[in-house]
Specification:
This protein is an alpha/beta fold. The protein folds into 2 domains: 244 residues, FAD/NAD(P)-binding domain (3-Layer(bba) Sandwich); 140 residues, D-Amino Acid Oxidase, subunit A, domain 2 (D-Amino Acid Oxidase, Chain A, domain 2, 2-Layer Sandwich), CATH 3.30.9. The chain has 12 helices and 17 strands. Helix 2 packs parallel to helix 7. It is globular and about 65 Å long. The protein binds flavin-adenine dinucleotide. The site of flavin-adenine dinucleotide (FAD) has 43 residues, from helix 2, strand 11 and strand 15.
Amino acid sequence: MADAPASHTNSWYAASAPERPLAPAAQGELRTDVCIIGAGFTGLSAALHLAEANVPTLVLEARRVGWGASGRNGGQLHPGFNKSPIELRRNYGNEVAAILGEIAHDARALLHDLRARMTLDCNWRAGLLTAIHKPRHNTVAQAYVEDRLTSAPSCGCTWLNAEDTAARLGTNFYAGGIFEPDGGHLHPLRFCLGLARLAEDAGACLCENSPAQRITRCAEGFRVETSNATIIAREVILACNGYVEGLEPEAHKRILPVKSFIIATEPLTPALQPLTGSWAAADDRFFLRYWRQSHDGRLLFGGGDGYHQRENIDIAGKLRRNLAELYPQLAALRIDYAWGGNIALTLPRLPMIRRLTSGVLAAGGYSGNGLDKSLIAGRILASAIKGDDTRLGFLSRLPCRVFPGGEAARFPLLFLAMTWYAFRDWLG
Ligand SMILES: Cc1cc2nc3c(=O)[nH]c(=O)nc-3n(C[C@H](O)[C@H](O)[C@H](O)COP(=O)(O)OP(=O)(O)OC[C@H]3O[C@@H](n4cnc5c(N)ncnc54)[C@H](O)[C@@H]3O)c2cc1C
């Protein structure tokens, strides 16, 4: 008997997104110019930009479109990379930091452009408040705001003192905050399904329930094998992010999957809503907490402690405790959905976007900040295949070392590192 088709994880997103008809699995021998592996934001953006340039493109998705991080994430748009422009200048120099700044700017613009082209409403709301959890972090926060205002005077980025932060968040847990009107949040699975539709309309072929099992070189380029099909392609794009596992060793060695979790409460009455606006909130811990109101009035509250690889975690219990720390009045709320997913970390905490070898391109490792960066990564990979290697060449030169410890020790070493970061969060 054939395996039952995979379904999306049981999340509030899956419950509030339209059902997409299952695309047929890849069958037999298929020929294409580009075979993309993974149908999340990265793979679908690459597919769209290739198909729009009439490059024959086939996407293999192991389960369903948006099954991975793209259909489960916090939905929060953080302007910029995980490292602030100040850190980027310090670590990589002014020139590299400036190009990364342009890429981050284009990533946001691309997200809004795609959103505007979709027929599916992905519930976009503008505004992001980053809460500062220790008073001494306010100096860094203020420097960040000044720096943003210097490079983009109209961005509206504002530093908030503890009182103003408490007024907006409905908790006096934090020492300050940064408000960014050009951040925001959306429904990631609806966005992903909308993106898949754009890619298909442009001519890309999507195959679901089609895990790629092997990639080998052949005279025409590459053979990508699934259990029922062989795809012959000139070039391959790996867009598996935190789910790459053993398919390709170079990406696997540089990307480490860590868990993050989200709960969706029952819908709240306006009197119980803690946030006093429709913006998203996140804090500045290493194991950050992130929350926002859904369009149907639920509180979506997320966080993670990273090093768990176990599947049987009491997600609801764990996040309820974190929620109660900020909002004791919400401790007894009913939790209707609880789910988790793989965040893909890299050592520098910048995405790995590069040509792995001639004909094999990869992007992933967004380190929890991939909502828009994965979209621009897909476009950069597509541009390189179409002949413009400028940005891919630049990004391929950025260092992205392999995680130490090899296959046997990388998770134990990660456990030690994460314990250290959790301790630092606790210390401040
Ligand atoms: C819980 C959580 C919260 C997050 N919150 C945020 C946030 O608020 N803001 C933000 O910017 N980022 C956030 N992120 C990160 C963000 O979701 C990712 O950076 C982004 O979705 C990456 O997209 P992707 O397409 O590269 O990977 P994914 O969406 O993970 O897609 C990879 C796909 O590859 C498929 N695949 C894997 N192996 C194979 C194979 N062998 N054959 C075929 N297909 C395969 C998988 O099934 C999967 O669908 C969060 C992530 C998680 C898990």
